[in-house]
């Protein structure tokens, strides 16, 4: 008889938590420490907050035998990335009142606060909820913020697609009353009937789950890096439905070959009416078949890999009670943002600003946060967070545009997108000092490294040539570095693994080029390749493709050679 494997520790924490309550309420009122109990720290994630400590201060506090400088990160869910000016102003206010004076725009179209001390945690979450935003399921073993292409005003299709992402998000939000009880002083309902979590059940999912909705030709939400994605298929100007992609993910661990990034497989097609049902049933397949014994093997990508995409499709069809249709043709051109002003067919305007590292803050020379606050005060459209950590000031009427332009000018933000195309296509995760898992700097270091690389870019005449470059402080891959054309992944203090050859549309994994490169050697390592590219690239050839053609790295995808996009010809050729 085969021995049953023991479940991972978090499964027991979830089981005994009484639907995510644990002892969070009691822990919050214990002000003798800035910390929460180990179990509650795990449960707090489902409520959208992480206990952290300032790693810059660790050594000094240890020396003085002080408790670590504990504080909390709060992640605010923004389904589809849409926030009103009022929500922006409130977020901005709370950033000063409770957090470290900055707003972080994340790689999943959410806001994050850092540096909230325990005694302010409850009040901050309550105030976030008062602005009609929330933090439930921003983290934890549940469906996370559903991402969506942020341009809903550009066509009716975009508007329909945004609605789809919000519907999925609402449908998959945990139903537990714990969130209201703990943070919003909701009444405790005494009932003899056990609470039910209709989709997730008592132990929720084996691990975090991530969904996106994309509108080709833009792959700005990076569908290939997500557990489940819906790719809008537009036929005759109408939304015909969505291709369904499953099993993408980035996270891995140095030295553990059983963990790896994986590109999603496109397995079928569904109608707009079926989307929410399909999302639910994919989640149920993962709930029932995901690995609950080993958290390093519990993401949906491993369920897909272990059973194979065909098995997943068959199981999904069984859960649905009907079959997904055959995949329809689509082409992604890139995964970046389009900067500057665009006009929609109704005559309204949308401005996408480059926000380095997604960090909204004021510096003496660049008063970004104040400028955006002043804009929010007069803006009557909305704000859109992009999956590339950028910000769109959306739906600006022709009458308002001059006023907004004046403020952009006054605060020095107007030319935020007049940077090298390398920088405009860069992403960096938070890393130090708040991220407990980081092995090296990312957000605080990438800007300087880009300045070094820009010297080579300039002299090679590549200022306007977009190359995607992403840096993370560890191989968890929060800025999706394994699908960038150039990826830097923290290996140790000031040392990075360097990856090359990702697809410009995020459709292909990169390959490890050099391991453990000291930061000071990176420019020297990449300069000859950049110069070679400038000299010998083919017409329109992307940097990642060039690195493969000329043999710097060999490209494979999920172990197989990769067939670029799914083009109409490829499908008709069978
Ligand atoms: Fe992430 C854990 C930050 C997007 C893969 N991520 C973390 C934590 C919470 C560290 C921790 O567990 O203690 C980081 C908090 C740092 C801090 O101080 O704020 C963190 N992740 C971020 C953000 C803020 C990066 C950013 O600079 O924008 C992004 C927040 C997204 C959001 O709004 O929900 C963020 N994380 C991602 C992405 C990209 C994406 O989702 O498109 C990934 C790769 C895709 C994927 O999930 O495979 C990602 N984060 C991870 C992982 C690896 C999971 C795995 O499969 O092994 C971890 C570690 C874990 O879960 O154990 C992690
Ligand atoms: Fe932290 Fe690693 Fe994610 Fe960067 S990639 S935020 S270092 S967990």
Regions with little confidence, pLDDT below 50 for 5+ residues: 561-574
Q: What name does the CATH topology of the largest domain carry?
A: Sulfite Reductase Hemoprotein, domain 1
CATH architecture of the largest domain: 2-Layer Sandwich
Q: Helical segment tally?
A: 18
Strand content: 15-25%
If you compute it from the alpha carbons, what radius of gyration comes out, rounded to the nearest whole angstrom?
23 Å
Please, how many domains?
A: 3
Give the overall shape: globular
Helix proportion range: 25-40%
Structural summary, described in words:
- The structure is a single chain.
- This protein has three domains: 9-320, 2-Layer Sandwich (Sulfite Reductase Hemoprotein, domain 1); 340-410, Sulfite Reductase Hemoprotein, domain 2 (Alpha-Beta Complex), CATH 3.90.480.10; 421-573, Sulfite Reductase Hemoprotein, domain 1 (2-Layer Sandwich).
- 31% of the residues lie in helices and 18% in strands.
- The chain has helices at 9-15, 24-29, 38-46, 58-63, 85-97, 118-130, 156-171, 178-183, 275-289, 300-307, 309-320, 368-378, 401-410, 421-424, 446-459, 522-536, 543-549, 568-572, and strands at 49-53, 70-76, 82-83, 103-105, 111-116, 147-148, 211-214, 228-235, 238-246, 265-270, 340-343, 349-353, 359-360, 362-363, 366-367, 382-385, 391-396, 426-428, 469-472, 486-492, 495-500, 511-518.
- The strands form five sheets. Strands 1-2-5-4-13 form a five-stranded antiparallel sheet. A five-stranded antiparallel sheet has the order 3-16-17-12-11.
- Strand 14 (362-363) and strand 15 form a beta hairpin.
- It is globular, with a radius of gyration of 23 Å.
- The relative contact order is 0.10.
- The structure holds siroheme (SRM) and iron/sulfur cluster.
- Residues 50, 52, 73, 75, 106-108, 110, 112, 144-145, 210, 222, 225, 249-251, 299, 358, 389, 429-430, 434-437, 476-480 line the site of siroheme.
